[in-house]
Amino acid sequence: MTRRTSDVASAGFSPTTWTTDALPPVELSTDQREKYRLLATQLLSNTLRDYDIYSADPRQRPMSRRRWKPVKTRDHITVYKERYPTPSSLASTDHLSGPPSRTSRASLADRVSMAFRSNEWTEPKLLVAAGWVEGTLDDVMYGVSSPDAQSMLMKATVVKNALINGAVLACIDAPCDADPFRFLGIKWFVKGPPTGLQGIVKPRDLVFIEATGITTRPNGERIGYQLLHSVDLPQYRDMEPRSGVEVTRGRISSCSIFREVPAGLGSRHSKVDVYVKGYVEAHGKLLDSVALTAASTGLMSSWNSVECANLKKLMWCFRQQPDWGCGRPLHLSGAISCALCHQSTCSRCRVSRTLKEVNGELWLRQEDVLICKRCVLQVDNLAAVDVARAESFASTGVTTDTGASNTTLPTEEEYSLSVLSPTTDQPIDSFRGLELQPEIDEQSDEHQEEKENVPLSDRERREQIWSQIVELRMVAESIYQLTLETSESLNTPQRTHR
């Protein structure tokens, strides 16, 4: 164990507060998995219905100051607190606790509410976050998704959400080729107290289901979503003896909707509409304020999801290099070489980036490198869905209890939602049945026979194919940028000298 620890440390990794054995995994029955699917369907359906009302009426865009009080703003996203609960908002909390009315029909929401009526909330308060982020829907979803503990820790270091431990307790639906952003499972994490309240407020731990993915509506519109909702599992009710941290059990219930909208006039960048609906419990005046601040921060965590996605894409590019992972510094020729393309660059044409990598032991490796702006542009323009598929192919740690489900769950609305299944979108490229051509190498016949006797595994073959595809796209993007620059220079009027 000591030798393994020293080997990890020698590779540049440092220990974190996260541990791999904090909690044992949970085994879910078929009925439990179905209940979680139903609950996720209800949450997403309710939030989509509210979002349709919000997005259809231009008067709803500036949130009514009479009903909503701004709590926190970051960049272009603002969190609002409901001043006075309305009958509609009170009715929308039925999924949080309590059995349905006897006079109502046995709808999907009723069955879910009955299944989870033991999960009672105390005076839940409604919060809504609305705004937009610059980027594509795929970039946002790539930054949001975290199907395992490693990606959870990586995301926490970028978002800076004060998580001190976390784990995926059960994976019901894992990412797949058709929808690499899909995930449904049970997670657990411990969130540290707010700054300045250490010793006064205990860390809070949460056990919840999380579902992420992209669903395609009947009109062809792609909608991204992320929902989190606390669940009560008997085996995880008392976490203090197992986790080793004195914590207080918290609750969470939120659903985020992401929709890509066309770029405005004069803008070359896409925008993603963000709408989040969540609840927070009341705990008295002091703790209510603390809980409100923490919940507001959580609801607007998607504000830098594109930044997280670009970091993950950058890390994926570095992992394609043969020297990555050996622990040696990436600086090649002093401070004038790009760490990615190894080309010399001046101070005006390079930027600093902090690379972050999490290993299987949940240790973190960070390194500051210099990257030329051309490489930054190429990495940022990589298709996030392609990189996510490549990572899904290469991953061996994400498993599913039920396998890849292709079932579309019906809802009570006039449309159906592929909440926990692949979207109807077809993959950009299909590589099934393709064989890699052997490389021509000037070696002896004996060495060539040895290479032929050791075929590539399916995972290695997929990795090579995806690497080649991404490289071709990077070359195409580079050619496009050069063509664009040349066109702009030719169209620039030349000054005439008299």
From TrEMBL:
Residues 1-21, 86-107, 397-430, 440-459 are annotated as: Disordered. InterPro entries: Rab4/Rab5_effector, START-like_dom_sf. Residues 445-459 have a biased composition (Basic and acidic residues). Residues 86-106, 397-410, 418-427 have a biased composition (Polar residues). This is FYVE-type domain-containing protein. It comes from Phytophthora infestans (strain T30-4) (Potato late blight agent). The lineage of its organism: Eukaryota, Sar, Stramenopiles, Oomycota, Peronosporomycetes.
